[in-house]
Predict the 3D structure of the following.
Amino acid sequence: MASTSDIKNGLCIKYNNDIYKIIEFLHVKPGKGPAFVRTKLRSLTNGKVLDNTFSAGHKIEEVRVENHKFQFLYPEGDQFHFMNTETFEQITLNKNILDSPDLLKEGENVMVSINTETDLPLSVDMPASVILEVTYAEPGIKGNTATNATKSATVETGASVNVPLFINEGDKIKIDTASGSYMERVKE
């Protein structure tokens, strides 16, 4: 059993007969009254996000997980196929387990958290950023830059990303996987 002082991002816990992963937390110590921890939990079975508050010292049941490196092979409908890079064992995961499946390129390496008790995959941790090629972008019109103007662009995985006006088709861009936003243009 763990307590609220052990809460950190990425921790998997059992709560309300389900397994949740902590995606955000904040320790709050008000001037009046006891301390508490505000958390944002994502269900690993259905992907729903839940806001919850734990009082200080509350006991939480931790789920023991192992992280393994897997390579993304290919998508097939709502199923995504991965291969363990050490044992070459293949697994198939549902699209709702992934945080941002539309940014996943074939051959990309990810970390898969596996429950040690049941040997079932719980979640997929994407790299912090991915580099993708722009396959379609409307041309930027000169003079439309009074503020930080952006336009919509489609990348090689089919995802749509807002990018600055100077990005053209064929450019490679770095995308933050947590927010799905443009970070920078990559020169090779």
